[in-house]
Amino acid sequence: MIDLEVVSEVTGLSESTIQSLIRADEFPKPRKASARRSCWLLREIEEWAESRPVSDLLPPLIRQ
Predict the structure, then answer these.
(1) Is the Cβ–Cβ distance between 10 and 53 less than 8 Å?
(2) What percent of the chain is predicted at pLDDT more than 90?
(3) Residue 27 burial class via C-beta count within 10 angstroms: exposed 0-12, middle 13-18, buried 19 and up
């Protein structure tokens, strides 16, 4: 199980964007790890990511 900070790192989305997507029912909802802690299953985040459409945008150039 991973917390919001790690979900943000894994997806590249900000924590506020993740929370907005959850409210819009467009992102997996967290699970209760305890009475005061919610986390996500990494597998569910990976499945969500794999279900996203393929982008037509080219990745940014990396300049050295």
Answers:
(1) no
(2) 83
(3) buried
pLDDT surpasses 90 at 55:
no
| Rounded CA separation 51/45 (Å) | 10
Does the predicted TM-score (pTM) go above 0.85? Answer: no
CA–CA separation, 56 vs 46, rounded Å? 21
Q: Six-digit token pair at 3?
A: 């917390």
DSSP state of 36: T
Phi, psi (deg, nearest 5) at residue 42: -55, -40
Report the alpha-carbon distance of residue 28 to residue 48 in Å, rounded. 7
Asked whether the CA dihedral 45, 14, 10, 55 is positive or negative, the reply is positive
